[in-house]
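Changelog note: in this version the structure field was regenerated for every chain. One regenerated record is shown below for reference.
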Amino acid sequence: MVHSEQGASDDPGTLGDKGDDLEKRLKAYEGRPSAVAGAGKDPVNAPMIRHWCEAMGDTNPAYAGPDAIAPPTTLQVWTMGGLSGHSGHIGRTEAYDELLALLDEAGCTSVVATDCEQDYVRALRPGDEITFDAVIESVSERKTTKLGTGYFVTTRMDVKVGEDLAGTHRFRILKYAPASRREKPPRRPRPVVNRDNSGFWEGVRQHRLLIQRCTGCGTLRHPWLPGCNSCGCPAWDTLEASGEGTVFSYVVLHHPPFPAFDPPYAVALIELAEGVRMISNVVGTPHDEVRIGQPVRLEFQQCDEELVLPVFRAREEAS
């Protein structure tokens, strides 16, 4: 899990001489509710579970059949209002809106989601009606990051079925004043490398696309995980991908502009010949010519002196 507060430093002066007074005002919101009496727009349901599992490539049998449970990581899904939102602004409090407005007034007009943490207490099953309440758990001291200077705001949401706590979802954002742009060209953001996926990125550095393979049941998986979703075995080895694949799905990014990226561009879900899927870019093809089912072939893109990324090119162009 990424914690974007890592590497942040205290900065006593960036937001002006009134910073101490601002921090006191921000701290006063800790413990106040950010959502009250929220309710899921739909019960936990089998179609959403199926969509989630198909998108994630998760074939765990616990998520299908008459005794199915919802994947634990869908905890927040059942609280979301979708594009239309929750009717009547349900759940959200004035306190949370006031906190964000106070940060806006202080110049922290930009926001980025940094990380989330979830604790699971009981399984959710189709038919469960969920409710939720949330609290402003903490507001950090002033921090300076590469994005700019601002404050980390953490909310804690308790998700219930009836009187029973199903799980807790902590969500952290950074509200910040953007840093001045540097003259040198921006670098592509670095991938998050941890103990579970370091072997994958070492393979990419060597221009090899490695797929995890469970040594218990032989199931291939991507992205890399510490254990097998199919049989639970923690042991694994790797298989080098052939590099052949097809575009399974894609989106075209038009907004927002971001340093080191030049929209519009296509982000595709590539189905490799081995059967697993991965997210990458389709290069060498205009964004409006990318198509589902389009044959592609792997290549490795040297983004800068340090970063190598696996990308895909339309097969007719690659040949």
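Spot check on this record: Residues 9-178 form a domain with the Thiol Ester Dehydrase; Chain A fold (CATH 3.10.129.10). The chain has five helices and 15 strands.
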